[in-house]
Write the structure tokens for this entry.
Amino acid sequence: MENRPAEYPATLDQTDWAALNTAQRIKHLELEGFVLFPALLDQAQVTAIKAELDRLPTIATDYSENQRGHSNVQWSNSPNCIDLIANPTITSFLETLFGDELVVTSCVFALSRPGHPGIAIHTDAQPYGSKIFGLQASAPRLVRVLYYLDDLTPERSPLLVIPHSHLSLHADGNPYHRYLSHPEAEMITCRAGSAAIINQTIFHANYPNLSQDD
């Protein structure tokens, strides 16, 4: 992987995620580095969760006023959000995946508003002493579960992943690297109520929000 200009178009993922069984989902996550669970939440659940999150104050990132977040949602008055941590479909899958007791390391709300420029391609792994991710960085096996409360379209901050990048032993796969673009980037879109699970060491990001929707 190199620092390349952002002219490389992404390949739109066409996987029939609903057709995968548990074994196929585990294989996809282990080899590709990510997996999607479509239509995991119904509209009533999405509406209730969004109502709770709308009440939480958000803080802008240092690179864009339109990329905002709220940390430690589990300590807020947000019962539907907290229940989501123990979603039975996801926890059952993760128990099969890990074969061990599950430990939750964080619960964060992120909002990519119109004008969000996109996030640099990065990993969530910082294995050599960085304090950016705290204790998460020292976890021997960690995945991040991303619940989407709005439709992801090509114009509305879809997920970007570099498949297989978590398997690379090359120097370009150093988890501290950041990239503006990559020729093997895949764009993942989905409907509200879907969830993605990514390996902590996969290179990923989200694209800009070119729409007029939060």
